[in-house]
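Chapter review: from sequence to fold.
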Amino acid sequence: MHSRMLALAAASGAALLAAALPATASPATHDVVTPGAGEPVEGTVGAAELLARVKGCTQISAGTYRKDAGSAANVPVCGMNGAVFWKADMDIACDGQVTGKCNRKSDPWFLPDTAFHQSSGKPLNSEKLPYIVVPSPSGIWRYPASGIRGGGVVAVVHDGKVRYGVVGDTGPSEIIGEASYAMAESLGVNPHPVSGGVASDVTYILFKNSRVSPIESHSAAVTLGDSLARQFLRENEPTSADGGAHDGVRQDR
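The token string follows.
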């Protein structure tokens, strides 16, 4: 698990960070509103398809992240056409609204707020909404500069499953790999904020310049996420010049 004591320090300025982030100026911004009844509740792109595109890494972060406090800093943020991604563990974020599963009794580090809020102004509901946590901006990486923002669409891949969600909170500036109770549960990962999570083999793909409105609409995230995932596959098709997908990390800043 992450050192949530670090999260306490980072989260105290979460709301200020959210308010201060510059708007992303890009004509390629994708917005979506809540779909009507009958829209799909899950995407159609397979885990193997996505993982085949992210075998290698063109590093866009100035440094690398730790999975947990005290662990080695060896997780880069990688860039591709239309997305950024990283491969890490999954710690459980239970912050936000007080619920039966996420509260001060179940989570001794619980914080009743998230960096990004629902359309009603309330914090996000970690128990119900699949979301991920991004590291607070630092010299390692500043996510707004890569077209990532609150409410942006993400695909999380683990154990042969793909689940869509949103960027919902910010965390410690040197640690990466955290997702909400609901995201973990949807992937079959133990979602308990203290004893849950998984140590490795989680891939986080964040689609640039995307936004779900309202942020709390998971069905909207799935609809837009599936569309962006297919676009991601098309835009990152291996070519003969590349020799196909490759392993390893190379720098591109």
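Two observations follow directly from the output. The longest strand covers residues 83-93. Residues 40 and 223 are 7 Å apart (CA to CA).
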